[in-house]
């Protein structure tokens, strides 16, 4: 079980990442402190690192990690300029994620980076729903409906992936916000309906049978998951 060290000073984000990573099968260490992170590095197989820490600049931690040689790092930060991204990658980051972010996507990125370093096996084959009508490959971050590859935005992907986690279960808008963003994101709950509308448009004329509306409650996947053979 690979160990992921999450270095993040915002408690809500730190705890959300712990939950998502543990649910995905990782052992997780967390700290809001750059100094503590430096002490924990020998216990980690991968580091998720916020650059805006209160005690130590994240770039200094990146430099220290780089001296260790082979410890992979995913930078997680609000610093979104091209210059910041280039600097982070030049300092040795293996991936760069800007806030706000999807915790689903970050877990996939953790898996992908660890896989490159030989730390986790490749993702399972695509899950199938509705006698093969819908296929979702979390490892490839792709989905197909009736054999056609869907061109989804990151938010549309996360919504489809969220309702597909438990077919038939109704998810409220608030639950979908937390599954898609993982932490409070001002105003986001009000936009869920718009994103669902856009997702259905891409799913095509039979979309209402795939992502169903439960009036006054929320949304659910209307297709059952197929048994693997």
Tell me what the structure shows.
The chain is of the alpha/beta class. It folds into two domains: 3-116, Response regulator (Rossmann fold); 127-221, Arc Repressor Mutant, subunit A, CATH 1.10.10. It has helices at 11-23, 34-40, 58-68, 82-90, 103-116, 154-164, 173-180, 192-203, 207-210; strands at 3-7, 27-31, 46-49, 73-77, 95-98, 127-129, 134-137, 142-145, 148-149, 171-172, 211-214, 218-221. A five-stranded parallel β-sheet has the order 2-1-3-4-5, with helices on both faces. Strands 6-7-8-9 form a four-stranded antiparallel β-sheet, with no helix packed on it. It has a three-stranded antiparallel β-sheet with strand order 10-12-11. It is elongated, with a radius of gyration of 19 Å. The chain starts with a strand and ends in an 8-residue tail after the last strand.
What is the secondary structure topology, with strand pairs?
Blueprint: E1 3-7, H1 11-23, E2 27-31, H2 34-40, E3 46-49, H3 58-68, E4 73-77, H4 82-90, E5 95-98, H5 103-116, E6 127-129, E7 134-137, E8 142-145, E9 148-149, H6 154-164, E10 171-172, H7 173-180, H8 192-203, H9 207-210, E11 211-214, E12 218-221
Parallel strand pairs: 1-2, 1-3, 3-4, 4-5
Antiparallel strand pairs: 6-7, 7-8, 8-9, 10-12, 11-12
Helix pairs in contact: 6-8
Helical stretch tally: 9
Integer count of domains: 2
Q: What sequence of helices (H) and strands (E) makes up the elements?
A: EHEHEHEHEHEEEEHEHHHEE
- The CATH homologous superfamily of the largest domain is called Response regulator
Strand content: 15-25%
The main sheet comes to:
5 strands, parallel
User: Can you name the CATH architecture of the largest domain?
Assistant: 3-Layer(aba) Sandwich
Which residue ranges are poorly predicted, with pLDDT under 50 across at least 5 consecutive positions? Answer: none
Give the spatial strand order of the biggest sheet.
Answer: 2-1-3-4-5
């Amino acid at each position: 079980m690979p160990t992921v060290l999450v270095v993040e000073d915002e408690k809500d984000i730190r705890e959300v990442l712990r939950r998502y990573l543990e649910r995905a099968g990782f052992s997780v260490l967390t700290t809001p402190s750059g100094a503590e992170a430096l002490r924990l590095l020998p216990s980690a197989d991968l580091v998720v690192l916020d650059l805006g820490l209160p005690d130590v600049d994240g770039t200094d931690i990146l430099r220290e990690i780089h001296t260790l040689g082979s410890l992979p790092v995913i930078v997680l930060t609000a610093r979104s300029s091209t210059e910041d991204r280039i600097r982070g990658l030049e300092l040795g980051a293996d991936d760069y994620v800007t806030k706000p972010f999807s915790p689903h996507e970050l877990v996939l990125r953790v898996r992908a980076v660890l896989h490159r370093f030989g730390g986790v096996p490749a993702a399972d084959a695509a899950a199938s729903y509705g006698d093969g009508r819908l296929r979702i490959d979390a490892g490839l971050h792709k989905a197909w409906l009736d054999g056609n590859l869907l061109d989804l935005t990151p938010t549309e992907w996360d919504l489809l992936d969220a309702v597909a986690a438990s077919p038939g279960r109704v998810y409220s808008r608030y639950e979908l916000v937390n599954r898609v963003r993982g932490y409070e994101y001002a105003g986001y709950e009000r936009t869920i309906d718009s994103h669902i509308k856009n997702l259905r448009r891409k799913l095509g004329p039979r979309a209402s049978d795939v992502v169903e509306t439960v009036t006054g409650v929320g949304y659910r996947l209307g297709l059952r998951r197929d048994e693997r053979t």
